[in-house]
## 1
Amino acid sequence: MNAYLLILIPLVGAALAAVWRGERSRPLLLPIFAAAHAVLVFWMLWHPPEVAANAWLGFDPMARAVLPAVSLLFLACAAYAVSYLRLRAERPNRTFVALLLAILGLLSAGHQARHLGVLWITTEAVTLAAVPLLHFNATPRAFEATWKYLLVGGTGIALSLFGSFCLGYASLHGGGSGDLTFAALMAQGAGLSRAWVLIAWVLLLVGYGTKMGLAPMHTWKPDAYGEAPGIVGAILAGGVTTVAFTAILRVRGVVEAAGQGAVADRTLLAIGLFSLVLAALLVLGSRDFKRMLAYSSVEHMGILVIAAAFGRAGVWAALFHVWSNSLIKGALFLSAGNIRRAAGARTRDEVRGMAAVTPHSAAIFVTGMFAITACPPFGPFFSELRVLRAGIETGHYAATGLLLTGLLFVFFGLTRLVFAIVDGRPRTATKTGEPRVRETAGVIVPPLALLVFSLWLGLATPSVLHEAWTAAVEQILSTR
Amino acid sequence: MSELANLLIGLAMGLNLLALGSSRLPSVIRTVAVQGMALGLLPLVLETRFDWLVALVAVITLLVKGVMIPTLLRRAMRTANIDREMQPVIGFVPSLLLGAAGTIAAVAAARALPLLPEHADTLLVPGALALVFTGFVLLVGRVKAISQVCGYLILENGIYLFGMLLIGSTPLLVESGILLDLTVGIFVIGIIVDRIQRAFDSLDTRKLTVLRE
């Protein structure tokens, strides 16, 4: 019942926002419904419900391990959105508010989907719901980014549907009933037709990998993150990508049960390392700090799938990293949005000295940058340390070495660009007259809260999360 | 029963080549619509006993693929006031040759795949593979936004055709959810096409090159 409430609460909020008349009061619906969702999801984290084995939707260990992080990120973004939409009072916000809440509901459904078809429908719906958010700024560049997002994302999502059907046929061919629930597919295990499982795995990995933004299917990401408002970037990078990742993990479980786990590990490792290395090179060449965040997101998606290839300890570390990456990405995107608005530009050629213009946002941005490049004592340091340890324990020395090198290059790239825009003397255009954006508490506290939470996550990971992640690993790799 | 199904799939595969070879946008839209309708009839032909739900889904599919989506695309084409030439990146003759080669490869690939005996002598799998391949050729080989959408639709048709393998086991709820998503997707695409037209005064996706790295 509560599992359905998690989906219904935000959807009711979305419906309410769609009919709400007050343009100024409508954004307040966001934090109200986000808070209700967060309270419920954290209550369920501590009191996990029983899920029927054949249920299509349910708050199972996998959902429990990831969904609270998404809810937390969304809550911070929702609080930020109230101030943001007040600053952007010239744009009508009805669609924006309604679709943001709808996305939260659909993300909850996607994380709880235990049926391949339901999973596909929710992922596709999230993709479509995000479209109007991407061109909120209504500039030609935003439309261009939206078109690329639709075309690349749509093709990816079509391939994942193809893959889902192939997995269904693997079950039929193996003498099963073609039941597309993950539980039934895993129970059929080695009975699944080998050739069709492998075809399905490749298609699903490419399909959901496009949604995650793994290289070489990442091409929509820099454009979309660069042109969308900071909140939308944060929710795409920290929320939507995680649904695609859990989808890949769930399918990974089926492939493992079918006895093809080694093949799955090899493909995950290859695509992850390629994403990481490509992202490192792109970060080094980037001059635009919002596009830089997109490349950083490609890098972290790469780390996630690399970790997923490192056995049980690796999957555990990946779930930890989902949390630390989502929270820090939220802080980075929101503070980058503040800097972008104050500076009126996005490249290091036009922006500098932001430490003087927007001291608080710049401080959060720099701290977040150190956190995301795995400097202690924030969450990403500890989760990436676990990924490296899992890599060494499973004997992947070369991959672990390459991972470390990639991280180092990303660190160089990020620090170079971030300090270029933060340091120095403000350009006259941004210095003269009143600052365009005052740093109100509404746009500072949410990213700061995410940073603090990530710090806490790193220093004292709550035992309930340890237990939730272990249970999720057990659900995915029970046969290993 | 299988005869009629093979006939419909064969028709869809022939329409692939028509879509690859046409130089005018309206005729590609019409081709895709006819293809969608041919595939929409399939569940009625494949199902041995009559089922109200299957019939309902088939009728909705026919309406959506044959009437709604083509109407949306034609309206987008009219309001955007684009000229009707296709402007291919991959020329028509090379596209046709590619399509023919892809169809042959699809038949060969389907031979190599392990299939259940009842599917081995139908064109379901080769047809699906050929449609997916053609969709990709159109997606990559055309520059107008609407012709790319047509490529996407052929790709979706191919996947729909593959889904027919599972018609006995996938609940219709899932099928209808997929159909709904597709419709909304095309609707959203229509709106975006309109906005791109207003913003760039053209629907040539080659002009969408500001964001380049």
## 2
Amino acid sequence: MSAATAPVEARRAGPADLLGLAARRNAWTLGLVGFLALLLVYTKLIQPRYGVTGIQGLAISVLPLALAAVAQAIVVIAGGIDLSIGSMMALINVVAAVLMNGQSEEFGVAVVLGVLLLGVALGAVNGSLIVLTRVPDIVVTLAMSFVWAGCALLVLPTPGGGSATWLMNLVNGSFGNEWIPQAAVVLVAIVAVIWIPVRRSRMGLSIYAIGSNRLAAFRSGVSVGRTKVLAYALMGLFSALAGLSLTASTGIGTPVPGPYTLLSVAAVVLGGVSLAGGRGGVFGPIVGVMILQLIRTDMTFLNVDTNLATVLQGIILIGVVMIGSLVQIRRARA
Amino acid sequence: MSGVAGTTAARSRWLHVAAWRDLFRDRPMIPLLALLAVLVAASDVVRPGIVAPEWAGIVLRAAVPLAILGACQTITMLTGGIDLSVAAVASMSGFVVASLTSGPGTLTGIVVALVAAALAGLVTGIGVGVFRVHPLIMTLGMSLVVLGMANFWQLQTIQTQVGVAPELRWLGSDAFADVVPYSLLIFVPLTLVIVLGLRRTGYGRMLFAIGDNPTAARLSGARSWQILVVLYIISALMAAIAGFLFSGYTNVASVSLVDSSLLPSVAAAVIGGTSIMGGRGGFGGTIVGALILTVISSLLSSLGYPEAVRQVLFGAIIVAVAAAYTRATGES
């Protein structure tokens, strides 16, 4: 093949080739989507009544963890990790519930905007501490998880508070067609409005760059420290959204952090984001969250003991990750 | 003239700081012990007369199980890993012994618990060493598996009487003359084995080598997968021992007993100067780290702060100590 023909061929690459390229690039995510589809079919087989209500329930129960997984994915892509996401969600959850309790619907809008800003601030504090002290991310965020959980207990010692009605209506019910749960629409809208523009901007590229190779990013003129703080601030925003979704779906504030931190790490890894940083996206982790949740649902349908369900969840997590790293090892050898 | 004096002062101050940095880097134990002394002094200021031999015994009894869990984190962090399954393994071990004490006997219970812990460690080690799964995710998944199995075992043994063995209660919560805890009978030999093992044996040096530079270690002929499998088995066995002491110390048999000590165990190793990136650290620092954490939480509770404020201060202090440490050793 001569050098002259190569570009011509490249230009002639049809939609099929582009599709093939996209498929190869997103093989892991496509595999996850296929697995999710199989799981849905399987669910329908073992529980013929699984339908509209099942999908609704899945969407609502998935929403907080899916947003937490997006938050975790962003910092993991930037080469960090945040072990305080669960505590942050609890803090936002109680602040929103306390402020909205017994107030007007309009005041609720102000509260939502306020706690989103608070989330950005909390994330920025984590990021700044990591950049300024140069202590590893995992240590700083581990310690900050105590701080945020303590703050949540200070704000609200026992579960209580309330939520604006519109916020609760936002995630419950369906959107137009009964098969489209409103919670899913909210999730898609949040990701489309916030993450996709960021991903396509200079900042998104910088986030991937510092996660992929810090030194190379620095030498290409990326401000590593500032990008890291921004990535953590963005994580804080998504954690705040996750915390708000807890307020919306439960209607109250609970000061004790749920298992979201570790589950978000699990979902991120399951979703094909490398813990080494710089690789992956937010779509995979969201699918990963849905798979984790659907497996739990199936186990209830099959009357599997909940403790065995925990065991199986761990085994599936380990198994999937093992397959993933085997694929990577093979690819590296080839 | 004043300019000259200023330069001299600046230089001597610079020398001063550099000397301190060298001291921190070469002898990290000195600043750590100084911090511990300050905290002990603060405890005495807050509650005059509290610092007495009996108080030291109470602190030691609480710190020993935490330090053993910290040992699990220390040896895994030396290779650049982490073990988040220690809490689940420790709780499971304590519970298994408690559930078998009234039937087959305490000794059988201990053997069964150690075998179960070793199996968990073996699987973790194979995942990390052979399949190259990130230790964070591997140990996280393993803690789910262990927790679920422990819960399942709890349901199976719901008929039998569950109670912490008197031997373990004695070991975990009694002390010679109310001062020297009997848990030191386990802890001192274990410490000797860990410290000498890390410093004097080839295996210990391998751990540092793998954490420092995995490629160089492999090219020098280290079979890292075998080392990692053994490492995670050792870590799980130590977690089981910590679990025995925890159940004896609290006189509680529960499958989630040790959960709240997971993050402090990582914090103890980090405060003690073990790098989470691998290749640097030791068990001596971790012991002091566990003592510091125990004294801090006893100090905060004697100040009468509510749990919430204690948590906030606890977190802030961990960040501050880690930051001071990182700055002092000049490591990024």
